[in-house]
Amino acid sequence: MAAAAKPNNLSLVVHGPGDLRLLHC
Protein backbone atom coordinates (compact mmCIF):
# COMPACT_ATOMS: atom_id res chain seq x y z
CA MET A 1 0.00 0.00 0.00
CA ALA A 2 2.85 2.38 0.79
CA ALA A 3 4.11 2.09 -2.79
CA ALA A 4 0.67 2.96 -4.13
CA ALA A 5 0.43 5.87 -1.70
CA LYS A 6 3.41 7.56 -3.35
CA PRO A 7 1.83 7.83 -6.84
CA ASN A 8 -1.58 8.43 -5.27
CA ASN A 9 -0.23 11.50 -3.50
CA LEU A 10 0.22 13.20 -6.88
CA SER A 11 -3.29 12.24 -7.91
CA LEU A 12 -4.65 13.44 -4.57
CA VAL A 13 -3.11 16.85 -5.06
CA VAL A 14 -4.81 17.11 -8.46
CA HIS A 15 -8.11 15.66 -7.24
CA GLY A 16 -8.41 17.39 -3.90
CA PRO A 17 -8.92 16.73 -0.16
CA GLY A 18 -12.13 14.76 -0.80
CA ASP A 19 -10.26 12.04 -2.71
CA LEU A 20 -7.52 11.90 -0.11
CA ARG A 21 -10.04 11.02 2.58
CA LEU A 22 -11.43 8.14 0.52
CA LEU A 23 -7.97 6.78 -0.28
CA HIS A 24 -6.79 7.28 3.29
CA CYS A 25 -9.75 5.27 4.53
Task: Report on this structure.
This is Sorbitol dehydrogenase. It comes from Homo sapiens. With 25 residues, the protein is mainly α. The chain contains two helices and no strands. The chain has helices at 2-15, 17-24. α1 packs antiparallel against α2. The protein is flat. The termini are close together. The mean pLDDT is 56.
List keywords for this structure.
mainly alpha, 2 helices, 25 residues
Amount of helix:
over 70%
* Largest β-sheet summary: none
Low-confidence stretches: none
Number of strands: 0
Q: Which structural class fits the helix and strand makeup?
A: mainly alpha
Give the overall silhouette.
flat
Q: Beta-sheet strand percentage?
A: under 5%
Q: Any idea what the radius of gyration is? A: 8 Å
Quick structural summary:
It contains two helices and no strands. It has 25 residues and is mostly helical. It is flat and about 20 Å long.
Give the SSE map.
Layout: H1 2-15, H2 17-24
Protein name: Sorbitol dehydrogenase
